[in-house]
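Troubleshooting log. The previous run stalled partway through. Resubmitting the same two chains, unchanged.
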Amino acid sequence: MSFLQSLTQRDRVFDFMAPQASPVDVRHGPILYMEDVTVSFDGFKAINNLNLTINDGELRCIIGPNGAGKTTMMDIITGKTRPTSGSVWFGSRHNLLHMNEPDIASLGIGRKFQKPTVFEALSVFENLELAMAADKRIFPTLTARMTGEIKDRIDEVLETIGLTALRHQPAGILSHGQKQWLEIGMLLMQRPRLLLVDEPVAGMTEQEMERTAELLTGLAGKQSVVVVEHDMGFVRSIARQVTVLHQGSVLAEGTMKQVSMDPKVVEVYLGDDDEEAA
Amino acid sequence: MSLTTESSTNFWLTRPFSERSTQIFLGVLLAALALVTLLHVAVPPDNPLHVGAYTVNLFGKYLSYALLAVAVDLVWGYLGILSLGHGAFFAIGGYAMGMYLMRQIGDRGTYGHPVLPDFMVFLNWDSLPWFWHGFDMAWLAFAMVLLAPGLLALVFGFLAFRSRVTGVYLSIITQALTFALMLAFFRNEMGFGGNNGLTDFREIVGFDLRSDATRLGLFLATGVALALGYILCRAIVTSKLGRVSVATRDAEARTRFLGYRVERFQLFVFVVSAMLAGLAGALYVPQVGIINPSEFSPIFSIEIVLWVALGGRATLYGAVIGAILVNYAKTIFTGVMPDAWLFALGAMFVLVTVFLPKGVAGLFGYLKRRKREEQTTDPDHQHTSKEASA
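Second attempt completed without errors. Output:
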């Protein structure tokens, strides 16, 4: 649709007239719509007519072989990559394709990258303090005080991620798994509506995986969580809804049971994985 | 490193006073100032305990170096910016003070010109360059002591941090900055006395610079400036801004991703540090009686970093210890065997790097930790030894 056509469209207000800081509208259920999204890099379609809907409060797992477009999909949602065509909406009010990265982040989409990066010289508590949504200009930061309210909020997140006992330890001494949880905690401090989590259990031990599964399932309901993961055992343990991506589009969607019995899925992904595991 | 957070409910500037390390530091500093004053004033000159005017002057010089080291530790220890050009801010602060002291000479110079300093008469200039105007007024000169280095740091830092120049590249350009300024200040047409710099000072705000009382006053003023500078730096590093700085030092991209405008934080801390360095320079000049372009030399800026490394980075008090230790050693060595000084400095640096990787201040931290471990792992032993001693 050209720009001129969009001006003559009578069923909606112009973008510049729409209220700016409007809350995310999830009255219709979904918090994220992606419709007919296509991204092509020099003719190669990393994402090909992708349609995906995430409901508010849902925990969704996204699986797919390497190159299926999982990371590109995350990049589109966070505003890092612009799709060639299609539309992406956050709730039914915010068009993410018209927003830049910081705006999308402040709207409430948090992303956890694969490799955990925490501030090793600072304590667990201080890591969460810095991550908190606050006035981040120089002088407010210089004169910031630790109020009871902030402390309660940090304590609450510490409890959620299970690091209360380690609150005064420098983050540098944490294990790999604990760093991942701390990083999820830092995302939670920003009070996101939608959490995008990229391969949270890579390199974790069995117990750490269980703990992460508990943490993520505990978050669902309060936040919407999208997990991209390779580890099928982990996905089985947390997933209610699974989306399988293949060559940039959705191959199958449903419960883990439905998906794993789908012959197409078995062919491209699960079959390979089970062979590897065997 | 111990950064206290949970006690940080009070106003940010008064926060350091509730810290143990700051209380000890201020206590030791004030006791030292009082002791030197007492030994200088109250003890008769023929007594071996008497501290002479020369020594008071020397200590004053060490204290101004200590303030400079604190300024460097603020940007290097807490922000991760290894500035190899802090000598430039020190020297500019020193020149601002030097210009004031030159104007104070008035018509008592060798050529007796009522306004122009001697070197300008010598160069056959017939009027003051524009930037020398107003330096006869103490308030303006003292303001320039802070503003001139601050402005240079603001412009330099704005360009460097906006372009995200960090790490070794930033170190190199700070080194280039001070070298370029040295070459510029060597030139007579710059109007800062060229090679010889500014010297032959007479008096400061009406006090004769050659009198013992003025020297003691300058020593005490430097001590107070060091205390205030230390408290300011401590207030900054214990605030949330200090934690953002440490976060920037360790993971700059991550800090930016949290929504902090990292380059502005870097600029703020860098400018504060440059102003403190300028203040240190301004206190240094009346005590040594001269300022010349050699203070801009790259070697001097590297030496400051060595003091901080020796004393212990990211502690602030370590910087003070390092500056005083190295300069005291320098005074002794250059007196006894001048040729050996550089070897001694090198040896000190090697020894500290091998045996005390966290500097002299790291030794305190180590002792404290050991004491705590002893207390926690062996409570019975502690208990019985107390009983035995009782």
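Takeaways: The interface with chain A takes residues 1, 3, 5-6, 8-12, 236, 239-241, 243-244, 246-247, 249-251, 253-255, 258-261, 264-265, 268 of chain B (CB under 8 Å). Residues 15-357 of chain B form one domain.
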